[in-house]
Amino acid sequence: MADLILETRGLTKEFRGFTAVQGVDLQVRRGTIHALIGPNGAGKTTVFNLLTKFLEPSAGQIYYNGRDITAARPADVARFGLVRSFQISAVFPHLSVRENVRVALQRPLGNSFHFWRSQLVLDRLNSRADALLDAVGLAGFEDSPAASLPYGRKRALEIATTLALDPEMLLLDEPMSGLGQEDIGRISGLIRDAARDRTVLMVEHNLSVVADLSQIITVLTRGRILAEGDYDTVSNNPEVIEAYLGTGLGTGLGTGHA
Q1: What string of pLDDT tens digits covers the 258 residues of the chain?
Q2: How far is residue 121's CA from residue 111's CA, in Å, rounded to a whole number?
């Protein structure tokens, strides 16, 4: 299908006899925010690790923009435009906020992490770095050490560094983890803004965030796809309710944490 940006066919991962992901056929439409949810141990993080090639599948194929990336290296997958947030960002806590974004901005230029380049060359990236920081609400923090930022602001910096790579598709791994309610609202807004011209696939436990942001939700349990659809569809699916809450514990998932 032409509108698919990411697709898996029969994606499977076994660990010494334990099947963590089994026969997952995932289809992510271009321009959507697509959530991957499920109880603890459902296989969500394993799927993410397979998609970004930090794990090799035991069986199945992965396609990105129609290209078979099943055997691609992690760096190649990122170069194709599929970037997993929070894996490359804010890894230099004693660099300034601006310097962290500049490091990410260098990657598409083919000179990442060239700290020995002249200050003049690096300063040319300042306006782009500052524009990204302003977009994520970090104007005024440019010269602060990354380590000094409050946790919610560090998450915003992580989004800025990821966007600096100019990805076509973002994979967000539990972006709301550890955030307070005020920060959740801020980061939700950043994700919505980032998705205006990108595709987003996210693993998230906060179901109120999932309901607010996602057009399509895929529910995993025991490594398999249990249900898929919009929030109303999956939250009223009896099998989904049982997987999350146990039989007879409610008629819907509500909007709390899972």
Answers
A1: 559 999 999 999 999 889 999 999 999 999 999 999 998 889 999 999 999 898 999 999 999 999 999 999 988 998 899 998 754 444 588 899 999 998 888 875 554 455 545 565 667 789 899 999 999 999 999 999 999 999 889 889 988 988 888 899 999 988 898 888 889 999 999 999 999 999 999 999 899 999 999 999 999 999 999 999 999 999 899 999 888 765 333 334 544 433
A2: 11
* End position of a domain, from candidates 115, 133, 164: 164
**Is residue 77 located within the same domain as residue 20?**
yes
Domain of 144 in residue numbering reads as: 91-164
Domain count, the chain: 2
Global confidence as pTM: 0.86
Both tokens of 82, joined, read 């599929």
Residues 80, 173 share a domain: yes
Residues 127 and 187 in one domain: no
Q: Of 164, 186, 205, which marks where a domain is finished?
A: 164
